[in-house]
Write a structure and sequence with these properties.
- The chain has 15 helices and 23 strands.
- With 463 residues, it is of the alpha/beta class.
- The strands form five sheets. A seven-stranded mixed β-sheet has the order 8-7-9-6-12-13-14, with helices on both faces. The protein has a six-stranded mixed β-sheet with strand order 18-19-23-20-21-22, with helices on both faces. It has a five-stranded parallel β-sheet with strand order 3-2-1-4-5.
- A hairpin with a 2-residue loop joins strand 10 and strand 11.
- The radius of gyration is 22 Å and the shape is globular.
- The relative contact order is 0.09.
- The mean pLDDT is 91.
């Protein structure tokens, strides 16, 4: 089969392209801004890439066009369609489908799908679960919205029956407004947590809970739903109906709980110690991710002690508190946090690891941009001071915002700084940073290469 992917350079669609190629299909694709590293990875797999969405790509005559949710029916200021290829597909009656639907129909049929859903921690938990199953000898396939450091790739077809997938609640395509995850038909569904997000497509939390209920509806009676016992929103989801075995984690009365520090803890099953995890990761959120992983792997018969041993060698995911370098005694991290709760969790975990601020060490400088659609809308701006409370200084990139970030951050007082461009932001941080500081750059985008620019500025600044 020849598939032509519209929006191929996105993390999900790029992973789908790699899986399709591994499965023996001919794959081509197009996107705007075809650039490394994704472009290099895809071309190395023999996938031809085209810049832009021109209608002349119809001449490729693929068996099916696979349409990413970056594609819309939008029009440019001059009245021309933003995606002329999509208009040609519709006009000519060509066959098209969404990425999640193509994946479900062509690669997931007959597999034991383990789907990891939740507002936070999907990428990390999916990576953990894939690694645990791999170390247990199950040779799983996986598709992750990031790059697990243990594997070095975001997708793999795998030789075993298990397939682990990051299950996103965002909508599927402009022609399919259901959440992506309803296509995957998991036998094991992990519900990590659930908060309001994606204000551009969901009106309220209840609307997202309804989509999670739709996911639960697809789990077979012999399947398992692994649910965070600390989340009231997930309790409401299960109250709407559940027809499968349920295993909970997180609370003291859950099936799986933890005892000890986040970096060194016992795994308890129904209150009894069954394994121990000792690793380099920090934060209560990662402890919960680990418990979810143990509970999901247990559904495939992986003993808790085997899962815990694998977790102890888990190396995290790129852009999850990834150290990008040190300069002038200052450590610079890259982190994907972009929701207020994720920002707070990331900074709280670092604060607990560092301990109290002392002379010459322990300060946290938070550098962030409100880049997600929800944050750009200003829906959660009131939560920002709360999310940044563990930071000693906070620096916000305000470019492209329609709301006043300085006003939103006013409760932080002199700890908060704003900058309309990256150059100003870098100068502010470099001027404030001192040896022993930890600078955490948080965004779900490239952030204008701020990490390397900061390291350069810290290297060249006067002593």
């Amino acid at each position: 089969m020849h598939i032509h992917i519209l929006g191929i350079c996105g993390t999900f669609m790029g992973g789908l392209a790699a899986l399709a190629r591994e499965a023996g299909h001919r794959v081509t694709g197009c996107d705007s801004g075809v650039y490394p590293p994704m472009s290099d990875q895809l071309r190395a797999l023999g996938i031809d890439l085209i810049e832009g969405f021109s209608a002349d790509q119809m001449a490729l005559k693929p068996d099916v066009f696979v349409v990413g949710n970056v594609v819309s029916r939008a029009r440019l200021p001059d009245g021309n369609p933003k995606f002329p290829l999509m208009e040609a597909i519709l006009d000519q009656g060509a066959r098209y489908t969404s990425g999640p639907q193509w994946l479900a129909e062509n690669l997931l049929q007959g597999r034991h799908v383990l789907a990891v859903a939740g507002t936070h921690g999907k990428t990390t938990t999916t990576s953990m679960l894939a690694w645990v199953l791999d170390q247990a000898g199950l040779q799983p396939g996986f598709l992750v919205g990031g790059v697990p450091l243990n594997f070095g790739v975001s997708a793999r077809l795998g030789q075993g029956s298990a397939f682990v997938i990051e299950a996103d609640e965002y909508d599927t395509a402009f022609f399919d407004k259901r959440s992506k995850f309803v296509h995957y038909r998991p036998r094991t569904a992990v519900l990590n947590n659930l908060e309001f997000d994606h204000a551009d497509i969901f009106d309220n939390l209840a609307a997202i809970e309804r989509q999670f209920h739709h996911l639960v509806r697809t789990v077979p009676s012999q399947g398992r739903v692994v649910v965070n016992g600390l989340e009231e929103s997930l309790t409401r989801v299960l109250t709407q109906g559940c027809w499968s075995e349920v295993r909970s984690f997180g609370s003291t009365v859950s099936d799986f709980s933890a005892e000890g520090e986040a970096h060194d803890f016992a795994v308890l099953r129904q209150g009894q110690p069954v394994a121990r995890v000792q690793w380099a990761l920090s934060g209560a959120h990662n402890q919960l991710n680990a418990l979810a992983t143990v509970a999901a792997a247990d559904h495939l018969g992986v003993p808790a002690e085997v899962a815990a041993e694998a977790l102890s060698s888990f190396q995290n995911v790129k852009r999850r508190m990834e150290v990008r370098g040190q300069a002038g005694g200052v450590t610079v991290y890259d982190d994907f946090a972009h929701h207020p709760t994720a920002i707070r969790t990331t900074l709280d975990g670092l604060r607990r690891r560092l301990g109290p601020v002392t002379e010459g060490s322990g300060r946290i400088l938070a550098v962030f941009e409100p880049r997600s659609n929800t944050m750009k809308l200003g829906t959660m701006k009131a939560q920002l001071p709360w999310s940044l409370s563990s930071a000693d200084l906070a620096f916000c990139h305000t470019g492209g915002l329609d709301w006043d970030a300085a006003e939103a951050l006013a409760p932080l007082g002199e700890r908060a700084h704003t900058a309309a461009d990256i150059d100003t932001l870098v100068r502010q941080v470099a001027a404030a940073a001192r040896p022993g500081d930890q600078v955490v750059c948080m965004s779900n985008g490239g952030f204008g290469g701020v990490h390397q620019r900061l390291l350069q500025a810290l290297t060249t600044r006067p002593a």
